[in-house]
Design a protein that fits this description.
Structural class: alpha/beta
Distance between the termini: 33 Å
Strand content: 25-35%
Largest sheet: 6 strands, mixed
Number of strands: 12
Strand order of the largest sheet: 6-9-10-3-11-12
Number of helices: 7
Oligomer: single chain
Shape: globular
């Protein structure tokens, strides 16, 4: 099976404080990996480091996407290589319409000058599948969006940009049961449309996992290090005994 993400001996610092240390992970095509850990364990730091946020300094180690080393390249080049990050707290950008943003992002990622009608028709199809009103396309980016709308828009980006690897950073946080099911359906749709899509799902809870396929691997992150990896039984153990059982 093709290796999509490879992380070797990764050490990450913020303002010279080590947050992630000696982190190793491999994700192959089509796999769903779940990363869990208590608050402050380094989960979001890892996600933002993989996407190339300049605040997070890679002190040592290697990150490779689809056999291409991306450790020190810019976020836009990582996106073009096939990496996508769904933000835990998406930013509001007044004055930028959803459709215009997705059109320009799509063209930038693919390098193709697709026609406006072609992109719009595809966007409408995805909005229908996600249960999103088509007027959504002309709203300003995340401006006045509810929590559920912001998360559904992240999935809309995922479907339109067609990455190889998706990092979902707590996409289930703050959602009621209906919004959670809608987000889970969007994840399933992305997997159905691209069976080779690899996903790293960062979460605190198992509730979203009840609505999507069983993960191939579950990883426990504590104090910036990978404490344990296994299958779904790790999640059940956390539900019963908390993260203290891994200390």
């Amino acid at each position: 099976m093709q290796l999509i993400l490879e992380i070797k001996n990764l050490q990450v610092a913020v303002e010279d404080t080590i947050i992630i240390n000696d982190f190793n992970l491999e994700i192959s095509a089509g796999e769903l990996h779940v990363l869990m850990g208590p608050n402050g364990s380094g989960k979001s730091t890892l996600a933002l480091t993989l996407m190339g946020h300049p605040r997070y300094q890679v002190k040592k180690g290697l990150i490779a996407l689809n056999s291409q080393e991306i450790t020190h390249i810019s976020p836009d080049k990582r996106a073009k290589a096939g990496l996508f990050l769904s933000f835990q707290q998406p930013q509001e950008i007044p004055g930028v319409q959803v459709f215009n943003f997705l059109k320009e992002a799509r063209r930038a990622i693919t390098g193709n000058n697709e026609g406006v009608d072609e992109i719009y028709d595809e966007l409408c199809d995805y909005m229908d599948l996600l249960g999103i009103d088509q007027r959504f396309a002309y709203r300003n980016l995340n401006d006045g969006f509810s929590g559920g709308e912001k998360k559904r828009f992240e999935l809309l980006q995922l479907l339109m940009l067609k990455p190889k690897l998706v990092i979902l950073d707590e996409i289930d946080s703050g959602l009621d049961i209906d919004a959670l099911k809608s987000v889970a359906e969007g994840i399933q749709l992305a997997q159905e449309q691209n069976p080779d899509l690899s996903i790293l799902l960062i979460t605190h809870y198992q509730r979203i996992l009840k609505h999507i396929k069983t993960p191939d691997y579950v990883h426990i992150l504590q104090k910036g290090t990978l404490q344990q990896s296994g299958n779904y039984q790790l999640i059940e153990a956390i539900e019963q005994g908390g993260y203290e059982i891994f200390n």
